[in-house]
Amino acid sequence: MHAYRTHTCGALRAGHTGQTVRLSGWIHRKRDHGGLVFVDLRDHYGLTQLVLAPGTPGFDLVERLRAESVIRVDGEVVARSTETVNPNLATGEVEIRVARVDVLSEAAELPLPVFGEPDYPEELRLKHRYLDLRRETLHRNIVLRSRVIHSIRNRMIDQGFLEYQTPILTASSPEGARDFLVPSRMHPNKFYALPQAPQQFKQLLMVSGFDRYFQIAPCFRDEDLRADRSLEFYQLDVEMSFVTQDDVFAAIEPVMHGVFEEFSGGKAVTPYPFPRIPYRDSMAKYGSDKPDLRNPLVMQDVSEHFRGGGFGVFARMLESPKSAIWAIPAPGGGSRAFCDKLNSWAQSEGQPGLGYIFWREGEEGGAGPIAKNIGVERTDAIRDQLGLKVGDAAFFVGGDPKSFTKFAGSARTKVGTDLNLVDEDRFEFAWIVDFPLFEMNEESKHVDFSHNPFSMPQGELEALMTKDPLDILAFQYDIVCNGYELCSGAVRNHRPDVMLKAFEIAGYGPEVVEEQFGGMLNAFRHGAPPHGGLAPGIDRIVMLLAGQTAIREVIAFPLNQQGQDLLMNAPSEVEDKQLKELHIRLAPQIKL
C-alpha cells in the first residue's frame, strides 16, 4: 500500500464499496453524533466522510485535533444509507469506516477558518494566504486560472503560433507607467528594468523572421493599484507578421470566444466576428472606451431640443460651440422617486445634480422642472428621439463633453443597474477601434501621443504630413468585455521615417528617439515586415470567468492595495552589505 494514499479524497464512489483504502488530507470539519465521530477529510481533489467509532486506534487523537490538522487513515469503504446520501458531494454515496489513524501534522489554533468561508479582513487573508487558498472558492479560482491558461496555450498553438520567451531584465523604457528598476552589481550606477510589457522584444522577433509569436508573459508596472490592476500581472502577449488589423482580429477572436465559451458556465458569449465600435462613438454612446454592452442604454445628443429653449441653464451652455447636452434614456424609470434618487446620487458624486424628465399616464408632455421649462413640443420631441414611452424617464448632462463624458458613462451604468437592465448571464465582447493617435495635452497645450506611440497611423506618412494631428486615427484597438478592457493592441509602425515624423509631431526630436528606441529603429532599417499584435490580460480574463470583481481573488499570492506582500513581508529593508555590493547609498526620506 502507498505510504500516504491509495485514492484521493474526491475519488471514491459506490463501486469501491468493500475495498480497504488509505486516504490522507486535512480535517475539514468534525461532528460528534452520539459517540461516533464524523470527519470530512479534504484534499485538493474533494471531500470524503470518515466514521470513527470509540476504540478505533487514533479515535482519542482525532477527538482532540483541531480543524486543518493533517491525518492519514486506513479503513473500509461502506455505502451510506439511503437517507444519509449526500447528492451535493461527488463521494456522497460512500463513507470510510476508519480502522486506523495517524497524525501527519497537527494544526495550531487557526487565525481564520477554512470551513464555511466567512468574510474576513483582506489583511488577515493575505497574511495567512496558505489558509485562504485552502478555502473552496479561492482554491477553485486558482485551479480555473491554470485550466484557462492551458486552454489559451493550446488554442494559440492550434492557430499556428509558437511560444517564445523574452527577457525579464531589460532596459528602462517609457511605456506609460513607472518602471521597476533593478540595480546592477557588475555595472555600478546602472540599472536594469523589469518589463512593463515585452513590446519591443516581440516586435524584434517579427523583424528576426519569426512569424507568429505568443507568450504568457509576466509584466511589471509601478503604478497605483485598484481592484483590476496589480504591480505584477500576466498577459497573453501576441504578435504576427504580414498582417492587417482584420488579420489580427480573425486570429484572436476564436481564441477569446472559445476560452470564454469553455469556462462560462453556460453564460452566452458574443459570437465572432465581434462588433467594432469606433472610439469616438463609444465615448458618445456609452461615456466610456470600455463599455459594458450588457447594459442596453445608449446615450444620445439632444442639444437641438434645448437650444434657445426655456431651460436657461442648458440654453446658456449651448451658446458655446464646444458644449452639448446628452440624454441617458431610462426605460421603466418614470417616477419622481427614481428621478430624485438619481439626482441625489449625482450630488454624492460631486455633481450639482442630474436633470431629468419623466413621462406618466394622463399628463401632457413630461413631468419635472425641465419639462415645464421647455414645453410640450420639445419634451415630446426628446421622447420620440430616445424611443421612450409613458412610464420612462430621461436624464441629462451638459457642458463640454470632455469634462462630463466620464460622469455621463457612470450615470448610464447607474441607471442600467438600478433598473435591472443589465443581463448578468452574458459575456459581451466588442472591439474599440480607430483611437486618435494624438491628443492635446491640456497642461502643456502641446500635441502628445494619446495612447501607444508605436501604432501605425491610418494613412501612414501622408496623413502625418497633411492632416491636423488631432484628426489622425491609428490602427489601434482594444478588446472590451462586460465593462473591462481585456487588452490593447495595434498594427505597429514599422517604418523609421513614419516613426520619426510621428514623434516629431509629439515634440520628440530624432536624437531622443534614437537614444530611447535606437535598437528597434536600427532593426527596422534592416528590413521589417508589417506586423501587429495585442496582449489580453490573463488576470482579468480569469476574474471575469470566476465571477469576481478583484484580480486578487484569482492570483495565488497577490499584493495588497498598498503593493505589499503581507505573507513574505515585501518590500523589506535590506542589509548594508547588500547595498554596498550594489553601489547604493540610501538618501534620507524626503518629507512632502
Explain what the structure shows.
The protein is 30% helix and 23% strand. It has an eight-stranded mixed beta sheet with strand order 6-9-10-23-22-21-18-12, with helices on both faces. It has a five-stranded mixed barrel with strand order 1-2-3-5-4. Strands 13-14-16-15 form a four-stranded antiparallel beta sheet. It is globular. By secondary structure, the protein is α+β, with helices and mostly antiparallel strands. The mean pLDDT is 94. The protein has 16 helices and 23 strands. 35% of the residues are buried.
Offer a quick outline of the entry.
The chain is of the alpha+beta class. The model has no long low-confidence stretch (mean pLDDT 94).
**Structural class, from helix and strand content?**
alpha+beta
The low-confidence runs, each spanning 5 or more residues with pLDDT under 50, are none
Q: Total strand count, please?
A: 23
The whole-angstrom Rg is 30 Å
Report on the biggest sheet: 8 strands, mixed
Beta fraction = 15-25%
Distance between the termini: 66 Å
Shape: globular
Q: Helicity level, as a percent range?
A: 25-40%
What topology, given as strand order, has the largest sheet? Answer: 6-9-10-23-22-21-18-12
Nearest-integer average pLDDT: 94
Counting H and I runs of at least 4 residues, what is the number of helices?
A: 16
